[in-house]
Amino acid sequence: MRHGNAGRKLGRTKSHRKATLSALSVSLIRHKKIRTTTAKAKEARMVVEKLITRAKRAVGKEGDAKQKDVHARREVFSFLRDREAVTTLFNDIAPKVAGRAGGYTRVVKLGQRQGDGAEVAILELVDYNVGQEKAAAKAKAKTAAGRKRAPKKAKPETTKKTEEAKAESGEAAETTEQSGADAKESDSKETA
After folding, report:
1. Span 73-118, pLDDT tens digits
2. Cystine design at 124: which of 6, 10, 33, 85 (Cβ 3.0–4.6 Å)?
3. Total domain count for the chain?
4. Model pTM?
5. 103 and 172 share a domain?
């Protein structure tokens, strides 16, 4: 029985599991959204939430002071092993989620993967859901366009314009044919 044994082993040794969760965390911090198996996403979510909370508290303590909480940054770095990710976490993500009490990430299940049938999910930062913002903007644009339907223009005006355009292009084609015929005549006169 697994009494008191929390967490998933993910079919890895302890060091491999730690490295996997570290890599997933770095990818999530960099890209704000990752696609992985559901089990890995749920495990990575627990780790990332703790890292974000740690960064948020450190940034809150720093306030406007010039001195940074170096200890918190070093502890986060000891797990992530990526300076760029640590900088992004403390400078961009932590201030953005300062008002949020928790739940910084979201796991969205996508179904089964084609190759091996594994359950796949997207792990994303809630405050950085760019794809959903774009979809919401498109939906708003469609509803706004639906409400403001402009009256249709009369068709006779458009047909007159197109007829004029066709007539002009027909005249241009005729002049091109004539100039081509004139050139042939002049060539034949030169050779004779």
Report:
1. 999 999 999 999 999 999 999 999 999 999 999 999 999 999 999 9
2. 33
3. 2
4. 0.68
5. no
